[in-house]
Amino acid sequence: QVQLVESGGDFVQTGGSLRLSCAASGLTGSSYWMNWIRQAPGKGLEWVSSIKSGATFYSESVKGRFTISRDGAKNTLYLEMTSLQVEDSAVYFCAAAGYWGQGTQVTVSS
Questions:
Q1: What pLDDT, on the 0 to 100 scale, is given for residue 30?
Q2: Residue 3 pLDDT level (bands cut at 50, 70, 90)
Q3: Are 107 and 12 in contact (CB under 8 A)?
Q4: SS3 58
Q5: How many helices (H) and strands (E) does the chain have?
Q6: What is the pLDDT of residue 29?
Q7: What is the pLDDT of residues 34-84, one digit of tens each?
Q8: Which of 1, 2, 22, 47 has the fewest Cβ atoms nearer than 10 Å?
Q9: Which whole-number Å values give the CA distances from 106 to 25, 28, 55, 73, in the listed order?
Q10: Are strands 11-13 and 104-109 parallel, antiparallel or unpaired?
Q11: pLDDT at 61
C-alpha cells in the first residue's frame, strides 16, 4: 500500500521560511518523478516543483526561493521554502507515481 504523508505546513509571516516533508512508503525504486503541487483557496491546482534522479524543475513563481530535494534512504521528499509571500499560501500536496498525499497547509501572513 502506497502512502504519502506531508508535514511541515504552518502559519508564517511574509519573508519567512518553512520546510515541508513528504514521507513515502510502499514505493519501490526511484525511477519516478516526485512532485509538489499546491492549491490556494478558491483556485485550481498549481504545479510547484519536481525531482527525479537529481534533476530538479521549478515553476517560475517559486524559482530561486524554493528548493526540492529527496532523501532516498529515508524515502522522504522535501521542499525548502524561503522568502515566503502571501501568494504562497496554499495546501501543498506531494505526488508520486500517481499517488497523492493529503496535503499540508501553508499560510503566509503580511
A1: 72
A2: very high
A3: yes
A4: strand
A5: 0, 11
A6: 72
A7: 999 999 999 999 999 999 988 999 999 999 999 999 998 889 999 999 999
A8: 1
A9: 23, 29, 25, 26
A10: parallel
A11: 97
Residue pLDDT, tens place only, 11-21: 999 999 999 99
Can you say whether residue 68 is alpha, beta or left, with left for phi > 0 and alpha for psi between -120 and 50 degrees?
beta
The answer to whether residues 61 and 78 touch, using CB atoms and an 8 Å cutoff, is no
Q: What's the Cα-to-Cα distance from 75 to each of 9, 13, 84, 95, rounded to whole Å? A: 19, 30, 26, 13
Cβ 11 vs Cβ 31: under 8 Å: no
pLDDT score for 77: 96
Give whole-number Cα distances, 17 to 11, 33, 44, 76, 109, in Å. 10, 25, 24, 19, 12
State how far the Cα of 12 lies from the Cα of 84, in Å rounded to an integer: 8
Tell me, rounded to whole angstroms, the distance of Cα 28 from its chain centroid.
20
Residue 2 is placed in which grid cell?
A: 502506497
